[in-house]
Structure formats: C-alpha cells, structure tokens
What we know:
The protein is mainly beta and 359 residues long.
Amino acid sequence: MPYITHPSESRLVERGAGGTLRQVTAHPSIHHHPFFFVDAWDQAMTFLILLSERSGAMQIYIEPTPGADLIQLTDEAALADWSVIPSRDGRWIYFVAGQEGKRVSPAYGTVETLVHFGSKEMREAGMVGAAMGTTALSASGRYWAVPVKAGAVSQFWLVDTEAGSAGVFHEAPTIGHPQFCPDDEDLILYAGPMTDRVWVTDRSGNARRIYHRPHDMQWVTHEVWRPGHRSVLFVDWPNGMREIDVDTGAVRPITDFPVWHGAPDATGCHIVGDTNFPDRGLHLITLDGSAAPKFLHEPKASSQGAHWAHPFPYNDGPIKVHAPQHTHPHPRFSPDGRQVVFTSDRTGHAQVYVLALEG
C-alpha cells in the first residue's frame, strides 16, 4: 500500500534516575509494541515498530527515527496484532491476517502473501498464552514458525521464506508463544498447556518437554531464551525466575525478585522486567547475581488480569480471564541495550513509550 504518514506524537515525558522517558504515541486509541520476547526494532535500529488501532483496526506502523512522523505500513481487515515480528535485517515485518501469513517491506510498503493456513479458528479462545497468536522468526529470517489452531489440535506451520515453501511440521494440544533459539535455528521453544508448559522442538517436529513441575501449584509462565547460553528463562510466578539448560535439563534459580515479564538483553547478561500484585515498576536485573535489582521506572499501567493475584488457577482446565494484553507493560530492550520499550495505559489509552537508560 502507499505510505500513509501521521504527524509525530513524540514528546519528552520525564527525566529520572532510571533514564529519559519519551512517549511515542498519543492518539486516543489502543497502541502497543510487538511483545516482551519480540524485537520492537530491527538490529540496526533503523525503525521502531508499533501497532495502532487509530484507523479503526489494528495496523502496523513504524517510527523511522525518534520523533519522526509515524508511517502506516498495512491496511488489513483482520491483522492479528500479536503475530507481528520483524526480521533482524529490517527487510521485512511478518504478520498473520485472517487465514494468511504475510510480510510487509518497511522500505517500500509492499505486502507479500506467503501462506494460506486454511483454518477457520486460527487461534485458541481467550486473551492469554496461545490465544494471543504470537509467531517466531529465526535469527537469519529464513524460517517463520506459526501455530495455528485447527479443530482439536494446534498445528505448527513452518514457512521457508527463501524457498517459498510452507507446511505443518508438528501437532500438539496447545502451541503458544513460539520462539526460535537465537543461537540455533533448528531449535524452537513453545508453551504447552498451562499445567505442562515448557517444550522445545526441532524443525522436523521432534518435540520434548524440558521442565516438569515439581507440584501442581507451581505457576510456570513467560518463558524466553537467554541469548548466548542455549538456555530458557522462565517465571516461577510470583517467586522469581529460573533457568533451564536445554541440553542437560539442569534447572537453577536466577532471582527471587517477583518478575512478571522478563526479557533479556542481546548479551544475555541482564533482564528488564515488569511487576504486578503489587506493581513495583520496571527493574533491571543482573543475571549473574552481582547486583541488586535496579528500579528503572514506574509505568503506571493498569496491568489487567485479576487471576495473577491468586494461586495457580488452571489445574482443573482452562478458565476465562479478562486480561487485555495492551494493558501490560511487556518491557523489551533495544538491540543495543540502551533503551527499553514498553506499553502503558496511564493516560486512559494504551500508548508506546521508550526509556533511554542512564549509564
């Protein structure tokens, strides 16, 4: 589609001990960045990606440089906003719209359709986990993995973006929050059912569980790869975070700080995390334990989802929760580790913010 530009809404909000906060969007509609384990910038940081509902439906936008006019890249009737993921080289942004997998060029605005999934359901019902419809892209950008709900099973589709091929390589009861290992393009992390959560598979569909809950009240959630370590970090809600070595299965505690969504930087040395029940703000945590968690900023997001305030609720099956994801901060480092993007509805509408870190 031809570019549609919107005047910059960028403004400096505050300067504090944690850094300088900039509000990127201000339109009275819903906005958010991709997700806490999905990059919001390309590797060279030539643009920032955000999702906006200002046109009446969620669409993909970019901010080419801080403070520049916003550029609308898509005009899709049924864009799945949490499916959006950019390639590291900045050539493409991948997304699901309706029953199709597509990509758009940030440089030219051209949209290509890569695959038709053929499922009427596409995603599980609800607002959390597999119902969000997140997707995974390998570090090289060659492989795009997309979970698709189809009847009684979830199909794991693999799209070869170079060869132009696509097909189902794995099926499971639930496939949520897929993530390619940043250090191995043949290894994909995904979330199974809430009671049996942490799984990996290769691109041939050889899946294996890498963590067994020691008791039925442990709440395992928000898994993410730790770059450079072939290990998975996960939240043991609300008791802190643990780390799993995917080759040996060894599990060790990382922190007892009550991280909610924790995302590592590109070095795998630090995580930035938000908090809830109570909201203690965004914190920087050193993964080797050499420093105490450092307060960065209070996002003042409503962080909806009352179930987070109670013990693990899923032992008897799925439950209906009201947890609109755009009300959660979902902090994410920039590729250079000097900025943190997050979402907050502190103004009454969910907006995108960037915190430039001090030091």
